[in-house]
């Protein structure tokens, strides 16, 4: 594993501050941080608003290397997403906040096969974070300054802002870890023209010799410490438009949205999980089982409107619910029961879908489940996607030894699926490591 040093790009000096008494700004900074904490943020800090030159270089280099897999977000316009002044002209400081989302999972429901959703998406934590930062913005505006809240916005690289504000430090899984508390935190900021005195980042390296996230990633997507290759990252593949690359479908296991593996294995997170920070809005109410373990049968039977109504706050490529159905078909192939008539019915129904992407994923699910007899109707299908699916090698689950079989209850099954995926990709070509 190559060690990656941060790009040798000098960070610019903070912009000159307008003439404002330092004591007034120190007092305002204190009030702002106090409001952030009172509003429920788990950590808050202040960063100066000079452009993030190193991150701009990282974005441009990774995009050029293909590691961004065509993602837009902050990659669309690196000059914009690394310059706070593009969000608020005259920006002088960022008040950066972190909101924890660690909470226990509800029990996995009995019944038909269920998918799995990553923790950050169990509730709308971004809405809570935004609401807390709105309060912070209110303090700044009341003092006569301008303030704009940016949360998970393409206009600002949130992790780097958190780093600069002294909230945490990058882990090798690329997430920002808070000292002693791990990475189960969403991040956001208030950009302001108030020249608040910046916090002094002094968070030490939190990983040391640990490599668990790199070793634990089911697809080997962490190609160097702190560097994720989105072409292999399951969190991106479930969001990306179009078909899911065949070579990563087994590793996807029962995931419908997001991937937590590189955080689940992280020692500071394990400690953090023992001290839940969420739930916040509905104190006392655990996350709803349907938001954590959505029924695969439901996902494959619901209408577009129902899917968007329940999961519309997720990032769904082109707002097209067929991408959720695509994910559900892969999950069905990985954890469905070939002997269950409801599973057979779903596969049969999707083999007749008018949409080639869904037919193709249904072909894969059928072959993975050993339901090849269902394929007779598509053998003459002229669509190139379907032809390619029929010709590809797919390892049937019932031909895997129990050791290598992905069916059954979630936890250990996922580990087994992961091992299978690791074996399956053993032959695959390693992408070039970033310099
Ligand atoms: C695009 C994106 C993704 C993409 C790409 C992720 C990626 N690593 O870039 C995909 C869809 C894969 C994704 C997945 C996830 N994401 Co996301 N994502 C974003 C988004 C929109 C932009 C991120 C970005 O600009 N990346 C650009 C690259 C250049 O930055 P980076 O990967 O952080 O790289 C830094 C390190 O490499 C570091 N670095 C450089 N050299 C070295 C060397 C060493 C040794 C180290 C340790 C570090 C290091 O510097 C780089 C920055 O300059 C932000 C929101 C935002 N507006 O910022 C959320 C965000 C980063 N995502 C977030 C979350 C929660 C996730 C997931 C955990 C969700 C999930 N469970 O599925 C996963 C985690 C995957 C992972 N291991 O990174 C949170 C992260 C919170 C945190 N505590 O860090 C953010 C900040 C959203 C938010 N507002 O809270 N995400
Ligand atoms: S989110 Fe999943 S696939 Fe992506 S780097 Fe982490 S463990 Fe790997
Ligand atoms: S698993 Fe280990 S190496 Fe990875 S982020 Fe956590 S502490 Fe760092």
Radius of gyration computed on alpha carbons: 23 Å
Uncertain spans: 402-435
H/E element order = HEHHEEHEHEEEHEEHHEHHHHHHHHHH
What's the quaternary structure here? single chain
Q: Mean pLDDT score, rounded?
A: 89
Helix content: 25-40%
Spatial strand order of the main sheet? 1-2-7-4
Number of strands: 10
User: What compounds sit in this structure?
Assistant: cobalamin, iron/sulfur cluster
Number of helices: 18
Strand content: 5-15%
What is the first-to-last residue Cα distance? 12 Å
Shape: elongated
Largest sheet: 4 strands, antiparallel
Q: Specify the structural class.
A: alpha+beta
Question: What would your notes on this structure say?
Answer:
Among the domains are: 23-192, no CATH class; 295-427, no CATH class. Residues 402-435 have low confidence and may be disordered. With 435 residues, it is α+β, with helices and mostly antiparallel strands. A hairpin with a 5-residue loop joins strand 5 (169-170) and strand 6. The protein has 18 helices and 10 strands. Helix 1 (22-38) runs antiparallel to helix 4 (125-142) and helix 14 packs parallel to helix 16. The protein is elongated. Bound molecules: cobalamin and iron/sulfur cluster (2 copies). Residues 173, 217-219, 221-222, 228, 233-235, 259, 261-262 line the site of one iron/sulfur cluster (SF4). One iron/sulfur cluster (SF4) binds next to helix 6 and helix 10.
């Amino acid at each position: 594993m190559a060690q990656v040093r941060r790009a040798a790009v000098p960070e610019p000096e903070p912009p000159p501050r307008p003439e404002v008494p330092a004591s007034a700004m120190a007092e305002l900074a204190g009030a702002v941080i106090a409001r952030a904490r009172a509003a429920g943020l788990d950590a808050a800090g202040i960063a100066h608003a000079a452009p993030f030159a190193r991150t701009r270089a990282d974005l441009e280099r990774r995009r050029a290397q293909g590691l961004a897999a065509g993602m837009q977000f902050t990659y669309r316009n690196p000059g914009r997403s690394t310059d706070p002044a593009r969000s608020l002209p005259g920006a002088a400081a960022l008040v950066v906040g972190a909101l924890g989302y660690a909470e226990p999972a509800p029990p996995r429901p009995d019944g038909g096969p269920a998918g799995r959703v990553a923790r950050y998406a169990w509730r709308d934590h971004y809405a809570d974070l935004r609401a807390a930062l709105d309060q912070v913005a209110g303090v700044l505006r009341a003092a006569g300054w301008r303030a704009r809240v940016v949360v998970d916005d393409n206009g600002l690289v949130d992790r780097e802002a958190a780093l600069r504000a002294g909230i945490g430090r990058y882990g090798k899984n690329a997430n920002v870890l808070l000292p002693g508390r791990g990475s189960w935190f969403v991040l956001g900021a208030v950009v302001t023209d108030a020249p608040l005195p910046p916090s002094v980042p002094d968070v030490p390296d939190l990983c040391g010799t640990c490599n668990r996230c790199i070793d634990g990633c089911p697809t080997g997507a962490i190609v160097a410490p702190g560097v994720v290759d989105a072409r292999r990252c399951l969190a991106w593949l479930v969001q990306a438009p179009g078909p899911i690359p065949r070579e990563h479908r087994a590793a996807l296991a029962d995931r419908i949205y997001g991937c937590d593996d590189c955080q689940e294995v992280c020692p500071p997170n394990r400690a953090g999980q023992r001290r839940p920070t969420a739930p916040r809005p509905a104190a006392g109410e655990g996350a709803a089982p349907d938001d954590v373990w959505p029924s695969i049968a439901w996902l494959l039977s619901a209408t577009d409107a129902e899917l968007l109504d329940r999961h519309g706050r997720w990032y769904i490529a082109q707002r097209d619910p067929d991408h959720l159905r695509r994910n559900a078909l892969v999950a069905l192939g990985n954890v469905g029961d070939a002997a269950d008539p409801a599973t057979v019915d779903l596969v049969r129904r999707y083999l007749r879908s008018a949409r080639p992407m869904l037919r193709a994923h249904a072909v894969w699910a059928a072959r993975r489940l050993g339901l090849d007899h269902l394929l007779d109707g598509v053998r003459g299908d002229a669509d190139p996607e379907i032809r390619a699916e029929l010709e590809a090698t797919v390892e049937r689950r019932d031909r895997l030894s129990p050791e290598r079989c992905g069916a059954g209850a979630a936890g250990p099954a996922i580990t087994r699926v992961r091992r299978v995926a690791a074996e399956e990709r053993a032959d695959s070509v390693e992408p070039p490591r970033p310099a």
